[in-house]
Amino acid sequence: MAQDQNFWEREQQVIQAAREASPEKFTSSVKDPYLLFEQIGIKSISKELPKGYFKYRPEDFIVEEERPDGAVITVDGKEVSREMDDGQGTIYFDLTKVGVSTIDAQNRITELTGHPEKDVGYAGIKDAVALTAQRVSLRGGILNEVLDLDIPGAIIRNVYEGKGVVQVGGLKGNRFTLLIRTEKTLDPAQIEDRIEYIKAHGIMNYFGVQRFGTPRFLAHEFGRAMLLSGAEAGVKTYVTMKSPFELPFFAERRAEATLVWGDWKKMFEILSDLPYSFRHELEMLESLQKTGGHFLTALEKVQQQAGMWVRAYASYAANERLSEAEKNGESLPTPMPQLLNPDQKALSVYKAFLDREGLRNPMGALKKYPFIRVGRNPTFIPVVHPEVHAYKVIPEGLAITFSLSKGAYATTMLMYLFDTLTGYPVPEWLDSKFVDTKEVLGTGSLSEVREMFEEDLNRIMSRKNEDSESGSEE
Length: 474
Hints:
Blueprint: H1 2-21, H2 33-39, E1 51-53, E2 61-66, E3 90-98, H3 102-113, E4 120-122, E5 131-139, H4 143-147, E6 154-162, E7 173-181, H5 188-201, E8 203-204, H6 219-229, H7 231-240, H8 248-258, H9 264-271, H10 279-291, H11 295-301, H12 303-328, E9 336-337, H13 351-357, H14 362-366, E10 379-380, E11 383-384, E12 387-394, E13 397-405, H15 410-415, E14 419-421, H16 437-441, H17 447-452, H18 454-470
Parallel strand pairs: 1-14, 2-5
Antiparallel strand pairs: 2-7, 3-5, 3-6, 4-5, 7-13, 8-11, 9-10, 12-13
Helix pairs in contact: 6-7, 6-12, 7-11, 8-9, 9-10, 10-11
């Protein structure tokens, strides 16, 4: 976390100077959400929806974990008194955070406690660009070391000792409280019609844009290259592939490095003054310099990212298949296997896709990368039925709270309500003021948690404004 912040600060002077010299290179090219949906395999979304901008402020996107017993870990939760039982081996706590991912928080916990990553348990990864709350466990932890943890952008509550651990997937789902900002006041009747349709029919459980990596949204292409063509193709595709969604300044720098492909030192020099935006490229290029061009080792240096790329390819395959089924009114097996599934018979649902891609055995192809792990029998629910708790049309847009089962995405729900916008450029019409969505919906208040996170929220919004001016999207 600290290193990424340092990288970001280092490159801001470079970006600011470049922007002053060539402002046209920081003008976003393509921002058509439907073109983006097509790129990630979503091809059956209605285009007759009002524009809605989400994730302007972290408080606009609240994610609260629903535990298997139905309890909700809330962002505005009070300290709960618990009887402490000694000698049970695991410390549990509720983690509320803003501006930091679950993985970054996990890394910070391991740094401070000396415990390995495997001792820190969580049920699911929560967004960094959001206000989130979830249950975490520390196996073999000591109560006081957890109470004393200092994690930037995070609050620890409800610490207690118990047995077992929090495991990935060990949750019922997530409760979302969102503010979608709109240019004009919405028609309540139209919103009601859309929500009633969703309640009656459910939504296709598409994998949303967050699965595909900003700002290029090409993670599935990197995964495809790895599985179809090998490690060298994976590295080359990641470093060189163009995207219509990347700002010209960054695309031109990438193109300059591409011209000297194979001269790892020169490529590193070309990208080195942008150590945040090109941090993963630089890690791989540094590895290629040291190993004389060993591509598998280069991918291992960014193994967490490489794992995300192959999973993004599986998500792309799922989106393609769901789109086809939605267009044709076709029923799909429930649960539906993911592409990276050891059961070859289960993959018959993807036969047309696999034939088109020329990929016979996805799991066999994955064996080339022993540092990447997937679940034993990964599946997902193709159609989900959101539980809408409350919603209200307000002058700024729509405040809504709903629950989704695990493995479903709020961004997918939003596709059925809005022509969605996020990131840069921020629309000129957007009303930027804070709205307490919990208060609006009668589900609580954000006043206390905002006070606790005041410095973090100010820093995030200040940086967002700077990024908006500079055009940085990484």
